[in-house]
Amino acid sequence: MANLSMTQLKTRNSASRFSFNFSKKVYPRPSRVDFKVFASEGQVSEPDLSVKVNGLHMPNPFVIGSGPPGTNYTVMKRAFDEGWGGVIAKTVSLDAAKVINVTPRYARLRANANGSAKGEIIGWQNIELISDRPLETMLKEFKQLKEEYPDRILIASIMEEYNKAAWEELIDRVEQTGIDAIEINFSCPHGMPERKMGAAVGQDCALLEEVCGWINAKATVPVWAKMTPNITDISQPARVALSSGCEGVAAINTIMSVMGINLNTLRPEPCVEGYSTPGGYSAKAVHPIALGKVMSIAKMMKSEFDSENYSLSAIGGVETGGDAAEFILLGANTVQVCTGVMMHGYGLVKKLSLELKDFMKKHNFTSIEDFRGASLQYFTTHTDLVHRQQEAIKQRKAIKKGLQSDKDWTGDGFVKESESMVSN
Ligand SMILES: Cc1cc2nc3c(=O)[nH]c(=O)nc-3n(C[C@H](O)[C@H](O)[C@H](O)COP(=O)(O)O)c2cc1C
C-alpha cells in the first residue's frame, strides 16, 4: 500500500481542469427525495442514533457497504433483522453474463502472523467483480425485501458501461423495485475499468460529469456517487458528482494494491493459474487512509455545498463504534461497513451501536448531529501549525512560571521552589 504511486493511475484527463469557483449553497437541492419515515424508538436517556439523510430515515447511521454482505435476499434480510440502519446491495449491471469471477479472489494481511494463519486480519484484498447473479434475480429480491421491510432503507448499487441508454435502463429497472436510493459505483479498481466502468469513470472528471448528468436526469430517488481513493485529489471528482446533481458522495472504495509475492513460488497473491492482477485493499489497515480522504471531501463539502441537502457516507476499515465516531466527527452522515461484516458477522451492528452510544454519553452528545463534523475545524495547513506552535511557545515563555534564576530563591522551602523550576 505504501508503494502505491500516482504513476500507476490511469487518469485519462487531468482533474485539475475542474477548478470551479463555488461559493457556499450554490446548489440548492431539488426535491427528488422520498420522505419514507422509519419510526425510531423513543429514547429517554439513551443517546439517539437515528439519522435523516437526503430525506431517508434510518434507526442508526450504520449501513452495509456494497459487497458480499449485500449479495442476496438471505443476507440482506439478515442485515435488517440484526438492526443495520440501511443496506447497500452488491453492485449490479444489466448483463451479469459479462461478469466472470476467478478463484481465489481474496488475500489477507495478518498482524504478527509470522507465517501462521492465526494473526489478526488487518488488511483484506479482493479481485472480486460486481454481482455475477442475473439482474432479474437481484431485482426480484430487492422487490421482496422492500415488500417485507417497507420502512427500512435499501439502496441499489449500480454500474454500467459508457452508454447513456444502458444507464437509463438500469436506473429504471432498479427503481421499479421500490429501492430508496441509488449508489453509483464509480470506484471498482479491478476488472471493470477494462470495460470503461467503475474507477475508469471516477478517475476522469470529464467522463464523470457526463455520466452523472445522464444518471441524474433519469433518477427519481436520491443518488450517491461512490468515489475511488485511487486518485490524487478525491475532492475533485466528489465536487463534480455533487455539482452534477448527486445528493451524496460515498468514500472510499478499495485501494488499489498488490497483496504480496509468494517467496517460494515467486508468484503474486492471490494467485490464479500462476498469475495475479492488482486488487482492492480494505479492512482496518485502510481506515487512516479513508479518514484522510473523507476529511478532504468533507472540507470541500463544508465550504461549497449546503450540509442540509448534501450527504457524505464514509467507508473504510470500520470495526468499532470509535472508528465510526471518527468518520462522523469529520462530517459523515452515515458509516458503511463491508469487510468488518465479512469478518465479524451481522451482529457487529449491536457492538457498533453500543460503542457509539458510550462515546456519545461520555461527551453528553444526545444526537448524531450534536457532534457531526466537530473535528473538521482542527485541520489546517502545516504552515499554520508552525505559526500556531511558535505563537504558543512565545506565550508560554511570556508567562514564565516558576523560579527563573538564582536571584529568585527566597529561602522559604527549597524543595517546593525547586519543583517550580521544571513546570514550564
Ligand atoms: C470482497 C469485496 C467485494 C466488494 N464489492 C463491491 C461492490 O460490488 N461494489 C462496491 O461499490 N464496493 C465493493 N466493495 C468495496 C466496499 O464496499 C468498501 O468500499 C471497501 O471494502 C472499504 O470498506 P471496508 O473496509 O469496510 O470493507 C467490495 C469490498 C470487498 C472486500
From TrEMBL:
Pfam families cross-referenced by the UniProt entry: DHO_dh
Domain of life of the native organism: Eukaryota
Gene3D superfamilies according to UniProt: Aldolase class I
Keywords assigned: Oxidoreductase
Protein name stated in the entry: dihydropyrimidine dehydrogenase (NADP(+))
CDD domains: DHPD_FMN
Native species: Medicago truncatula
GO molecular function, one term: NADP binding
EC identifiers of the protein: 1.3.1.2
